[in-house]
UniProtKB/TrEMBL annotation:
Matching SUPFAM superfamilies: FAD/NAD(P)-binding domain, FAD/NAD-linked reductases, dimerisation (C-terminal) domain
Designated name of the protein: Dihydrolipoamide dehydrogenase
Record key words, sorted: FAD, Flavoprotein
GO MF term list: flavin adenine dinucleotide binding; NAD(P)H dehydrogenase (quinone) activity
Start and end residues of each FAD/NAD(P)-binding domain: 7-326
Length: 460
């Protein structure tokens, strides 16, 4: 049995792991990056980038099919070549993965280990069958895995997760999407716009992470006008028959529906990928789900020299947060036991549907008592109406006494850009008055932000 010594071991070479590695090396410490699966981050290989490539194709198809209101008519039937769609997706996806591989290949060979790792103690890892790594501290950055309820596991290859969608050579005819979170909504709408018969089911009333009931109702109306989306609907049975899946589901009122699909796409959430790490061999205190107690400010597992970075910690499973986690966990692992809490960043999340969904700062559900709410409806907002993107609502939140801007939730045009502006305002601790002193060009969609802020300012 061979043993390697290092200052910091990093398990997982995704976004968080690679960022942690760079943080450790920048601190002048030794690091070993351990990966048991394929190189290339989840974002590049099966997440952010391929999903946006599918969405881009879907948006192009939608734009062509809905150009008539502008007086632009397409003679004849608009054709969607599923094989060409998937071919471009894979080529561009592989290009993004290639950029990641270049960074991996540039690392010193002695800093990389291939193999699955598990803990033997707080400071020892077993990698494969014949190698041990002894490290003063460890960063675990193993990511997350799709949650698949047991009732679907008998469906075999007719059950897919988002990872599998991007390996298709062609688009299927019929897909059931289970889950109305960001992944389910993004992929469900994209497939529908590309001509796939899609049903999207949500077991609860949740929709894209929206907590503001006014914004959620606006989003629901916009999506249901375009594709079959049902909330508060439970799947009762899913049975494979040949290459089809027969599914029976019911609304909360008890109305049952039976339909056949080529695939069931499971998008009911993701779980931290801790299985196989054998954290029980460490000093970590685990709950009944196997999750260790974690200080979210430092990412340190309580009572150990172990740090959790990225999706595996279950805090905020977003790519930009994984990068932030990696920097913090890597820096703290490098200087352990002198760990430091993170500097807080304003929460920001975006769902790339059409209309887009965005959240910045405090959620509606967490607003303090007496907070004021400003609003704008994009239906008659100038630039949005010009572009026929006039769907959705923005609601901004502020403290009633000081006018300090707290956050916002929105569904609407340009939400990916507006969300950033609002998150920056939260982090800068601006008041709505100060925000209204900022320049607003005309005519732009961002003028809708000014409308909402003015509404809030009148209530302060």
């Amino acid at each position: 049995m061979n043993t390697l010594e290092t200052d910091v071991a990093i398990v997982g070479a995704g976004t968080a792991g690679m960022t942690a590695y760079r943080a450790v090396k920048s601190a002048g410490r030794r690091a070993i990056l351990i990966e048991g699966g394929p190189y290339g981050t989840m974002c590049a290989r099966v997440g952010c980038m391929p999903s946006k490539l599918l969405i881009a194709a879907a948006d192009a198809a939608h734009a062509v099919q809905h150009s008539a209101p502008f007086g632009v008519r397409i003679d004849g039937k608009v054709g969607i070549d599923g094989r060409q769609v998937m071919d471009r997706l894979k080529r561009e996806r592989d290009r993004f993965v290639g950029f990641v591989l270049e960074k991996i290949n540039a690392m010193p060979a002695e800093d990389k280990l291939r193999g699955h790792a598990h803990f033997l103690s707080d400071t020892q890892l077993q990698v494969g069958d014949n190698l041990r790594v002894r490290a003063a501290s460890t960063v675990v950055a193993t990511g997350s895995a799709p949650f698949v309820p047991s009732m679907y596991k008998s469906l075999g290859d007719r059950l897919v997760v988002n990872d599998d969608v991007f390996s298709w050579d062609d688009l299927p005819r019929r897909v059931l999407v289970v889950g109305t979170g960001p992944i389910g909504l993004e992929l469900g709408q994209a497939l529908a716009r590309l001509g796939v018969q899609v049903h999207v089911l949500g077991r609860s009333g949740g929709l894209g992470g929206i907590t503001d009931p006014v914004v959620r109702a606006s989003a629901l109306g916009a999506f249901q006008a375009e594709f079959d989306l049902r909330l508060n609907t439970e799947v009762l049975e899913a049975v494979r028959k040949g290459d089809e899946v027969h599914v029976r589901f019911a609304s909360k009122e008890g109305e049952e529906t039976t339909a056949c699909y080529d695939y069931v796409l499971m998008a009911a959430g993701r779980l931290p990928e801790l299985e196989g790490l054998q954290l029980g061999n460490t000093s970590a205190k685990l709950d009944d789900k196997g999750m260790p107690r974690l200080d979210v400010a430092t990412l340190q597992v309580e009572g150990t020299p172990i740090f959790l970075a990225g999706d595996v910690n279950g805090v905020t499973p977003l790519q930009h947060e994984a990068a932030n986690d990696g920097r913090l966990a890597g820096a703290n692992a490098a200087r352990f036991p002198d760990v430091q809490p993170r500097k807080p960043r304003a929460p920001l999340s975006i769902v790339f549907t059409d209309p887009q969904i965005a959240h910045a700062g405090v959620f509606f559900r967490d607003l303090p008592k007496g907070a004021v709410i400003g609003k704008v409806d994009f239906e008659n907002q100038g630039r949005s109406r010009i572009k026929l993107r006039n769907r959705g609502k923005l609601r901004v939140y502020a403290q009633a006494d000081s006018g300090r801007f707290l956050g916002a939730e929105m569904v609407g045009p340009a939400a990916e850009h507006i969300g950033h502006l609002l998150a920056w305002a939260v982090q800068a601790e601006l008041t709505v008055g100060q925000m209204l002193e900022m320049p607003f060009y005309h005519p732009v969609i961002e003028e809708g932000v000014r409308t909402a802020l003015r509404d809030a300012a009148r209530q302060v």
